[in-house]
Amino acid sequence: MRAMNPGGTILVAEAVLEADKTDLLTRLTDLVLMVDLAGRERNATEFRRLFATAGLALKRIVPTKSNYKIMELEAKIDEQLEQ
């Protein structure tokens, strides 16, 4: 079942790890997620893969003044999902 039309947009506010540098707050948040919730922080490549499994394409990442970034996702057109 499809929850949104192809081309639909979702905005996600999330911390996105950078490959070469990560601040202490982000590392501690990652640790808490792994220990308490079986989750973790992700980098852009990992988010792309995760969203692709849900039929979404990561279009862009917009930085903010906080540790969070805004990720713009678009529903992909996939013949298998429409059946």
TrEMBL record:
Gene3D superfamilies: Vaccinia Virus protein VP39. PROSITE patterns: SAM_OMT_II. InterPro entries: COMT-like (IPR016461), COMT_C (IPR001077), SAM-dependent_MTases_sf (IPR029063). Keywords: Methyltransferase, S-adenosyl-L-methionine, Transferase. Pfam families: Methyltransf_2 (PF00891). One of its GO terms (biological process) is methylation. Residues 2-56 form the O-methyltransferase C-terminal domain. SUPFAM superfamilies: S-adenosyl-L-methionine-dependent methyltransferases (SSF53335). GO terms for molecular function: O-methyltransferase activity. This is O-methyltransferase C-terminal domain-containing protein.
